Each structure stands twice: as structure tokens, then as C-alpha cells.
Amino acid sequence: MKDKISVGKITICALCGIFVGFFNGFFGGGGGMIVVPLLIFALGLQEKEAHATAILTILPISLVSAIVYIVKGNVDYSSLGLTTIGFILGGVVGAFLLKKLNNKVIRIIFSLLMIVAGIKIIW
To answer: Does the pLDDT at position 74 exceed 80?
Structure first.
């Protein structure tokens, strides 16, 4: 059984949630790139736990952000269907690989992905 959650941990979780929610809403996605490191460093989760938890936290954040973008008319419906299919297939494959790979390999893949994304944003 897990330990009781302390007031400090609840505060950290709430602050991290506000930060990730703002980031996801402002940029229209990408909250997972922020929440995974926060879960690892701020809460001490292992990589697999952090990635799995991130998936569950990103779902409601993304739904709220999507509703706001739909209401504001900022959705390209012509690419929505195929993109959604790709997300679903990629999610299934990713969840399968997350279960099979060890934490060190997951950490390396995630770190490389963040570095590549950062370089792409700069250029």
C-alpha cells in the first residue's frame, strides 16, 4: 500500500497541474513533455509510472483545451480524422513498448526526443 499523501505533495501536484494545464492550453498540446519531467523530479516517480500517469493527466487537459479551440473556431477539420487514427494507433504501439522497455531506455528515448524538439523549435 502506498504512503499517505502529504500536504506538501498535494501542493506540489496542484502547482505542477496548474503549470502543465497552462502550458497545454497556451500551446494547444505538448503537456506530456512538461508533466513527465515534473512527475520524475518533483514527485520521484519512475519513468514508466511517470509516462503512464502523464497519459492519464493529459487526457482531461487535452479535452478541455480542445473544447476551447473548437468553440473559438481554431480547428482544421480536414486533417482531424486521419490524425486521430494516427494518434490512436501510435498510442497503442507506444503503450505496448512502454510496458516492454526498461526505465533507462525510456529515459534515453524521451531525452533524445526532447532535445530534437528543442533544436527544431530553435531553427
So the answer is: yes
> Are 31 and 58 within 8 A, CB to CB?
yes
User: For residue 30, what is the DSSP state?
Assistant: -
Residue type, 50: A
What's the mean pLDDT in 19-43?
Answer: 80
**pLDDT tens by residue, 75-123:** 898 988 898 899 899 989 988 988 899 989 988 998 898 899 889 888 8
Domain segments of the chain: what residues? 7-122
Please provide the size of the chain in residues: 123
Write the secondary structure of the chain as one string of H (helix), E (strand) and C (coil).
CCCCCCHHHHHHHHHHHHHHHHHHHHHCCCHHHHHHHHHHHCCCCCHHHHHHHHHHHHHHHHHHHHHHHHHCCCCCCCCHHHHHHHHHHHHHHHHHHHHHCCHHHHHHHHHHHHHHHHHHHHC
Do residues 24 and 58 touch, judged by C-beta distance below 8 A? yes
End-to-end CA distance of the chain: 47
